[in-house]
């Protein structure tokens, strides 16, 4: 009788140990699932940004800026993706971020270039995660089972459409058009397909609050790709040009500590160079020139701007646009700037 009781207790103890191992295995599976699903949010690397954190600083709001931003947000409210097109240095990116922040939804930022492909937009497999289950159901026997689960990492587009964020896709036209095929189903059918993802999670239903703002330079710029007509037909194209004189003065004054008269003079000369030169002379060039004047003190003894100093400053600011050819191009640029100033 004693032997039978001992045997039953041993069996019961084995079952208890086996039950604990199974429970630990289930916990490990759940932990693995949580880890895989939140991989994009670990270590602070989530692409989601709070709208208040993306507002450009400083950002100037004049009637011209507000009117353009209201136009953009009106199209977004009509559930239309907006494509901002214009010359470099005219403030497209700052305008896009301001419009995105005004929606009050999370913002996802994406910068286009030649390396952007479909995986960079939607996500890809990022290796696997492995753990072991130990089965000791039979006393004295340890059976090990290795379980491997592939880890998928969502990239900006997947996160934006799932969370209902505003996607700001900067330099959209610098990416290969083939990478943008996935956008067709997003804007037309409200579904994002994730190539490489298997099972029921292969597609994501687009959140009703998802919106997109894209920025591109004009087509004549180097490195700009022509995108497929089927996609462009689904965008609203808003052309962004250089702002009026008042707005440019406000923008430069927000970045540089100079007198109002000095800022007005620099903006006036920038606008004159814009009309005279074949290269792009944007608002960003005016800001940089003003910063140069503040450092090098481009005033003569009478408190007026020294034309020679201004010529050197503007030549340094604009020289990268003609550099790489030969020295004569820089000399010619300096001459033409001096004549205009």
Automatic annotation (TrEMBL):
Xref: CDD domains: AAA (cd00009)
Biased composition, class Basic residues, residue ranges: 8-17
Family matches, as InterPro entries: AAA+_ATPase, ATPase_dyneun-rel_AAA, CbbQ/NirQ/NorQ/GpvN, Gas-vesicle_GvpN, P-loop_NTPase
SUPFAM superfamilies: P-loop containing nucleoside triphosphate hydrolases (SSF52540)
A GO MF label: ATP hydrolysis activity
One Pfam family it belongs to: AAA_5
GO biological process, one term: gas vesicle organization
Locations listed in the record: Cytoplasm; Gas vesicle
Superkingdom assignment: Archaea
Main location: cytoplasm
GO cellular component, one term: gas vesicle
UniProt keyword annotations, A-Z: ATP-binding, Cytoplasm, Gas vesicle, Hydrolase, Nucleotide-binding
Catalysed reactions listed for this entry: ATP + H2O = ADP + phosphate + H(+)
Gene3D superfamilies assigned to the protein according to its UniProt record, in alphabetical order: P-loop containing nucleotide triphosphate hydrolases
Start and end residues of each stretch annotated as Disordered: 1-56
AAA+ ATPase domain ranges (all copies): 78-246
PANTHER family recorded: MAGNESIUM-CHELATASE SUBUNIT CHLD, MOXR FAMILY PROTEIN
Stated family: Belongs to the CbbQ/NirQ/NorQ/GpvN family.
Name of the protein in its database record: Gas vesicle protein GvpN
């Amino acid at each position: 009788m004693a032997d039978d009781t001992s045997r039953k207790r041993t069996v019961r103890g084995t079952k208890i140990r086996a039950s604990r191992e199974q429970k630990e295995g289930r916990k490990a599976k759940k932990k693995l699932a949580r880890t895989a699903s939140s991989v994009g949010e670990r270590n602070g690397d989530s692409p989601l940004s709070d709208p208040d954190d993306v507002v450009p600083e400083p950002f100037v709001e004049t009637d011209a800026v507000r009117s353009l931003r209201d136009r953009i947000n009106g199209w977004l409210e009509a559930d239309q993706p907006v494509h901002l097109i214009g010359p470099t240095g005219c403030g497209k990116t700052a305008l896009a971020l301001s419009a995105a922040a005004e929606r009050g939804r999370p913002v996802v930022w994406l910068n286009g270039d030649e390396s952007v492909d479909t995986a960079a937009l939607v996500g890809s497999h990022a290796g696997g995660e492995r753990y072991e289950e130990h089965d000791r159901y039979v006393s004295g026997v340890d059976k090990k089972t290795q379980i491997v689960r592939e880890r998928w990492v969502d990239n900006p587009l997947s996160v934006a459409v799932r969370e209902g964020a505003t996607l700001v896709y900067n330099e959209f036209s610098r990416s290969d058009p083939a990478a943008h095929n996935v956008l067709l189903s997003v804007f037309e059918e409200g579904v994002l397909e994730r190539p490489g993802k298997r099972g029921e999670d292969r597609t994501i239903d687009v959140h009703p609050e998802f919106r997109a703002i894209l920025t591109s330079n004009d087509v004549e710029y180097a490195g700009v790709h022509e995108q497929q007509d089927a996609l462009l037909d689904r965008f609203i194209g808003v052309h962004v040009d250089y702002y009026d004189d008042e707005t440019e003065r406000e923008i430069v004054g927000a970045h540089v500590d100079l007198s109002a008269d000095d800022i007005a003079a620099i903006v006036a000369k920038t606008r004159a160079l814009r009309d005279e030169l074949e290269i792009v002379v944007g608002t960003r060039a005016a800001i940089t020139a003003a910063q140069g004047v503040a450092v090098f003190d481009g005033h003569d003894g009478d408190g007026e701007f020294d034309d020679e100093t201004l010529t050197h400053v503007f030549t340094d600011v604009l020289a990268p646009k003609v550099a790489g050819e030969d020295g004569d191009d820089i000399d010619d640029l300096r001459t033409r700037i001096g004549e205009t100033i």
